[in-house]
Amino acid sequence: MNFKKINAFLHLWLGLGSGLIVFIVSITGCIYVFEKEIRSLYEPWQYVKPQQEAFLLPTQLTGLATAQMGGLKPNSIRYGQKDEAVTVSNFNRKKGISVVVFMNPYTGELIHTEKKNRKSNPDFFRFILNGHRALWLPYPIGRPIVGAAVLIFVLLLSSGIILWWPKKWIKSIRDKSFKIKWNASFKRKNYDLHNVLGFYTFLFLLMISLTGLVYSYKWYSKSLYWLSSGGKSMKEFKRALSDTTATGTFKPTDVDRLYSRIVASDQTENILVSLPEKPSDAIGFVVYLKAGTLYKTNRYNFDQLSLKPITDGSPFSGRYDDASAADKLRRMNYDLHIGVILGIPTKILAFLASLISASLPVTGCIIWYNRKFKKKKKTAKVPLTGSKKIADPPVTKEKQEEKELVH
Length: 407
Fold this sequence. Notes:
The chain is of the alpha+beta class. It folds into 2 domains: 1-48 and 116-229 and 338-373 and 393-407, no CATH class; 57-105 and 239-323, no CATH class. It is 48% helix and 11% strand. The protein has helices spanning 3-32, 35-42, 58-65, 124-134, 139-164, 171-178, 186-200, 202-213, 218-228, 252-265, 325-338, 344-372, 397-404, and strands at 76-79, 86-92, 97-103, 110-117, 270-274, 283-288, 297-302. Helix 7 (186-200) packs across helix 12 (344-372) and helix 8 (202-213) packs across helix 11 (325-338). The longest helix is centred in the first third of the chain and has 30 residues, at 3-32. The relative contact order is 0.12. Residues 378-407 are annotated as: Disordered. The chain crosses the membrane at residues 12-34, 145-165, 197-217, 348-369.
């Protein structure tokens, strides 16, 4: 068995084995791309009328929101853009339960309150995300399955481009490799949809898959950083901790002082403020420098008593401008994966690529079914009469397409 046959064999059976999982992961990813834009259509409480006034300080917002949180203490505040509501939240990571209060950032007016439970959340996009990440299975079971399927998909993309590669770069073969024959039979159109669309989305799907593997395998994540940094080891992200041996009392007004200082110095688009709940917790700020993305951020942590800066040396810590090229690339990983890196244009590309990705297992399965199970019509053999041979019947359009449908 030569290389081409081995490659075709692996492409077929790896595709059939992982097809359903690839379809689910791709179609859920496709739906999730425009989550923010779709939510804005049915969640009007996310927006307010923009004003020229400054936003209220953290202590002013938490003081107004606490009464709506059922006795829970706020542990985060998210400031948006001028036309967005500010949210004051309490999130219990262990139980997966959160209470979110939407407020007018200029007046403190209460707009909406949400209570969410990760395990029984009826939210449509949470349902989609759970399918994308773990096939709606418990995460310890579903995530490894998704990771393995994505790894196989990378192999399928590589083997697929080898199968697609034209034997000769003459015009007739180029046309078959780069164009879909829309006026052909269904079998031929399906074959072209698999091969041609697979080729055009190859690089996009490879990028989406490789960035997704970062969240599935630590060995892959560390290896990718090692390669991009020129042989440096990646420091693991660690939660910033305050000095618990120091004496004193946490002052909420210190958060106001730090917030005001950061707003004055950084060109902020959004700010996430993490409030300490325990003596070991730090005061945290994630400053988003580019709206709609996650990579371009300045991340600060301060001791809750001394207000001294704390850093863990991970790729996500500190100012974006001070980060190395490898650290910036790691920060970009999520934005590259979901297609928000350049805004709406890359979102559209990610949407179309994910949609085509979902179609590849379907069109591939149809190609396999047609070759394996669809019976070809048999033509009766006409006996020779005397010394004359009856001429072969003319080659029909369908017969010609049958000959062309070979990898």
